[in-house]
Amino acid sequence: MPELPEVETVRRTLLGQIKDLIINDIDVRYDSIIDGDTDDFISKIRGKKIINIERLGKYLLFVLNEGAFISHLRMEGKYFYVPKGSLDNKHIHVVFYLSNGFMLCYQDVRKFGRMAYKNYEEAYTTKPLSEVGIDPILSKQIEIKLIYDKIVRKTIPIKTILLDQTILSGLGNIYVDEVLYKASINPLRLGKDLNYEEIESIVKESIIILSKAIELKGTTIRSYTSSLGVTGEYQNFLLVHTKDFCPNCNTKLDKIKIGGRSTYYCKNCQR
């Protein structure tokens, strides 16, 4: 699944390719990708110019000269920017035909991704973006106490809490494992049992790790590969996720399921 660094890489890459182009037409082949009426979505976007692409957490916001549309890639969503007529398969569900003769194709093997038209002025104050938690990269100053107050109310594992995008946004399975390792926190510990300093460390490590992953254009492993000619390199810096031994104490890492998600951690170093 693409997480914040991968979505940010998609944003930056696409912005350099499609900024200032006009969407001449749209072909929606699977209506459930669109939240709301498909014909309305098409009519409001057709003929509009793409002036920017913004991001909040794992969401992309394509800003048009009038209005905008939100895109969430979910598990397997990918964008392809290719010459018109050069790509077609059964997993391409939305095609934007652009004014330069290229097309922007949205492919999604699992069909979990979603798009929705929004008035730009309301995009961040209405669902789904209004429910997105603090973005560790975009937020200039993070109030640790606000995050602390939310986490310590929870009686579920911190791994599950951090995967909930309403507190800290952008962290997925890979980066949560890495953040908790660097913060020396066992992923099974309950939110209510964490202290202020530990939550402060989680936020600090989230910023460091996500920033480094963005710099390296994300993590390219089996759950995410780029479709835009960009290959991430952060997989070369992973410390525990998909690894066998702790890089600090050389203890064999535990691999367990938490909330159905594969979780890697060191019992010796993470308390």
Give a short synopsis of this structure:
This protein is of the alpha+beta class. It has helices at residues 4-18, 38-45, 144-151, 158-163, 173-182, 196-215, and strands spanning 23-28, 50-56, 59-64, 68-72, 78-83, 92-98, 102-107, 114-118, 254-258, 261-265.
Chart the SSEs and their pairings.
Layout: H1 4-18, E1 23-28, H2 38-45, E2 50-56, E3 59-64, E4 68-72, E5 78-83, E6 92-98, E7 102-107, E8 114-118, H3 144-151, H4 158-163, H5 173-182, H6 196-215, E9 254-258, E10 261-265
Antiparallel strand pairs: 1-6, 2-3, 3-4, 4-8, 5-7, 6-7, 9-10
Query: What Rg is obtained from the alpha carbons, in whole angstroms?
Result: 20 Å
Shape: globular
Task: Enumerate the strands of the largest sheet in spatial order, edge to edge or round the barrel.
Answer: 1-6-7-5
Q: Could you give a short account of the major beta sheet?
A: 4 strands, antiparallel
SSE sequence, one letter per element: HEHEEEEEEEHHHHEE
Structural class: alpha+beta
Distance between the termini: 27 Å
Helix content: 10-25%
Strand content: 15-25%
**What is the residue-mean pLDDT, rounded to a whole number?**
95
The count of strands amounts to 10
The low-pLDDT segments are none
Task: Figure out the total of helices.
Answer: 6
